[in-house]
Amino acid sequence: MKLKRAVSVIIILVSLCSLMTGCFDKKEVDELGYVIALGLDKGKTNYLKLTFQIAKPHAGGESGGGGGGGGGEPPYSNITVEAPSIYAGINMANTFTSKQINLSHNKVVVFSEELAREGLEAYLHALLRGREFRPSMYMVVSRNSAEEYLKGVKPELVLNPSKYYELAFQSYSYTGLIPNSQFHDFYKYSESLYKDPVAILGGIGSFKSSDDFSVEKSTFRERGHKVPIGGDFFAGTVTKTGGVDTENMGLAVFNGDKMVGEMDGTDSKYLLLATGEYGHAYWTIPDQKEEGKFVLLDIKQSRRPQHKVKLVDEKPYIDVKIILEADILSIQSTVDYEQGELTNLLEKYVEELIGKEMHRFLEKTSKDFNSDICGFGSYAKKYFLTWKEWEKYNWKSKYKDATFNVDINLKIRRPGLILKTLPSVGSEGTEENDK
């Protein structure tokens, strides 16, 4: 009896030991160096150059200092190594950092444009297999090197550098000037048959002083504008100084895993409108009644876009319907667009303007890049009974022959806190008084 009891106790103890196996590889938080951003460039002495941006332990908790670090230091440390692969680079970095590198809190992966144009397939697979890499990481292509891009990040308005990346890349929902590009979507679309991926376009600012501002590299002339309006810039060409040196504006267009082109911040708005990811943004609309004046609108997408795809002689015909609503923010000319027929006139004018620009954007994705970044291919699959038929059709090769029809419906809902715009009154009076 005693022997049976002893055997039972031993079996129970052995069973309990198996439940504790997860504790053997535990790591204390202060033993790990948390990477918040990872940069990948082509190497000079090896295949790959990796830049690890590691958060300093006190950066997330101190209450003083504009950048979160003590003594004016940045709240992170940048480490750059050259290696044949991502994991070889992690091994190398671990030999001279005091803490073991951990990527479970990495917020963004930055690729250089040079690397992106050669293809990212090998690196995407490596990131996907790693247990520490989160699928919610943001994807950025830098027009400069990834190393320069990460060095230019010097957050001033947040203490936690990790929070900076979260907030900066979520701005697509209220500016529309960058796409929503996360790793899980990027990888999925790079391997899909119906859609191509995009990445956020990043760069380093060109101007050290406002006296140096230039719009030579702006895209406003291509759109027929007299001055840059809104997002008529690529990252690195924005007329700005101060704050962080990095800029995020526009998108990198991919065909599969290879970058094939770039589009500006305004085109990012049309991508978000077409995919239904658009939240709201401020739009500057040229006044049709007075040259040199603008009407400013806060435009929201009231419901998801409607897409229809037809195949005629194997050529795609794509209908896009987008329903919007707007609030008036400012009328510089003081024309009474808030009421009556003038409201309808403004609505039709904005519909035509957005429709024209949306059509231009779609034609560019098709004819210039042959890249279906809007995912219209998902609406064409229904015409094929089997997967093999769909594969044989090869949607991505047919997209360049697509014909687009765009329908924009916009309603102005509110005039803001002013019911009617009135001109300012000076000592000379107004035109109405003169009459």
TrEMBL record:
Q: Which Gene3D superfamilies match?
A: Nutrient germinant receptor protein C, domain 3
Tell me yes or no: is Transport among this UniProt entry's keywords: no
Keyword flag Cell inner membrane: no
What's the protein's topology in the membrane? Answer: Lipid-anchor
One Pfam annotation reads Spore_GerAC_N
User: What is the annotated localization of this protein?
Assistant: Membrane
Signal sequence, renumbered to the chain: 1-20
Q: Which cellular component appears as one GO term in the record?
A: membrane
GO biological process: one example: spore germination
Q: Where is the Spore germination protein N-terminal domain?
A: 25-199
The alphabetized UniProt keywords are:
Germination, Lipoprotein, Membrane, Palmitate, Signal
The Spore germination GerAC-like C-terminal domain, residue ranges: 249-416
**Which InterPro entries has this protein been placed in?**
GerAC_N, Spore_GerAC-like, Spore_GerAC-like_C, Spore_GerAC_C_sf
- PROSITE patterns per the UniProt record, alphabetical: PROKAR_LIPOPROTEIN
The record's principal subcellular location, in a coarse class, is membrane
Which family, according to the similarity comment? Belongs to the GerABKC lipoprotein family.
| Protein's recorded name | Germination protein, Ger(X)C family
- Organism classification: Bacteria, Bacillati, Bacillota, Clostridia, Eubacteriales
